[in-house]
Amino acid sequence: MNSKDESFKDFVLDQLAGLEDVEARPMFGAHGLYQDETVFGMIHKGKLFFKIDASTVGEYRRRKMKPFRANARQTLKTYYQVPAEIIENGDELRGWAARAVACQNKRR
């Protein structure tokens, strides 16, 4: 991860500071976002992606956000890019993150 990506990761973690036990861990050339042991997001190449489900994907699509693409042949449709205006607003970002955690916890 280059210094620009590292700075973005640090910014996202600062924005999420109001949520308990959130950390970023290296994961397949990206950073996974965890709350306790629940993976709810990832940071890859300067972009933030959150876990989605049928109840949350519509908000991402309305904002023209796309699913995570690791490369030209691999798309992970259960993670969508978070809009920049949400990332910039810590309160909104924490709300979106809480919904992403809930999506992942429903799967258990």
Helix segment count?
A: 4
Structural class: alpha+beta
Strand order of the largest sheet: 1-2-3-4-6-5
- List unreliable stretches of 5+ residues: none
Please state roughly what percent of the residues sit in beta strands, choosing from under 5%, 5-15%, 15-25%, 25-35%, 35-45% or over 45%: 25-35%
Main sheet characteristics:
6 strands, antiparallel
Mean pLDDT: 92
The run of helices and strands is HEEEEHEEHH
What's the number of structural domains?
A: 1
What would you say this structure looks like, in words?
- The protein has one domain (3-106): YgaC/TfoX-N like chaperone (Yope Regulator, Chain: A, 2-Layer Sandwich), CATH 3.30.1460.
- Helices cover 38% and strands 34% of the residues.
- The protein contains four helices and six strands; from the N terminus they run H-E-E-E-E-H-E-E-H-H.
- A six-stranded antiparallel sheet has the order 1-2-3-4-6-5.
- The chain starts with a helix and ends with a helix.
- The relative contact order is 0.19.
- The mean pLDDT is 92.
List keywords for this structure.
108 residues, alpha+beta, Yope Regulator, Chain: A, six-stranded antiparallel β-sheet, 38% helix, globular
